Amino acid sequence: xxxxxxxxxxxxxxxxxxxxxxxxxxxxxxxxxxxxxxxxxxxxxxxxxxxxxxxxxxxxxxxxxxxxxxxxxxxxxxxxxxxxxxxxxxxxxxxxxxxxxxxxxxxxxxxxxxxxxxxxxxxxxxxxxxxxxxxxxxxxxxxxxxxxxxxxxxxxxxxxxxxxxxxxxxxxxxxxxxxxxxxxxxxxxxxxxxxxxxxxxxxxxxxxxxxxxxxxxxxxxxxxxxxxxxxxxxxxxxxxxxxxxx
Length: 246
What we know:
Layout: H1 8-32, H2 47-50, E1 54-64, H3 73-89, E2 90-99, H4 107-118, E3 125-130, E4 141-151, H5 182-191, H6 209-220
Parallel strand pairs: 2-3
Antiparallel strand pairs: 1-4, 2-4
């Protein structure tokens, strides 16, 4: 009768294979919990989503610096531009604020009120004061109203994570940093004249009848209806302008 093979070497080999399989499973489970393997962004990837431009009811103000206690031509021009914007987008009262501790019935305040009325402001003109910053700068007379304005609701200059840190995985995802685009969005919001342009298109104006007729006739004749713009006088860079046909 043949002898049975020894079972102890098989048990050791089997146990070794089980140990290796368990170690591999543990390693894979550990990799699954590393944050940088996730494709989900920590914040919206587009700067338009992180720092949106919205149309809101917000204060619009202009600071006036009286010269010799009175308004000069430049300040009056600023008041006229301010009044024009109030007529277009403002509502409610116009507030004239003077720095705390100054005379609220000064000649400059009287001239600001008179300039607003002359510029067409028909709403209520109220008076008040404000606390100027303690930075040794000349405090202005501040005129403001509340109306439609394009603003960026998020604050710029926020750095919630260290981009150069080697102790975190924030920079491993190759995503834009959270402050990216905030200054650009704020500048665009301040430059656009009509804040409603951000949320709705303007009405289409009437078409040019002469141009439309010319294009239709060109199509009927089998010609290109587009406009061919040409410059009759071409001046080379660094060359002289042509004179008397020479």
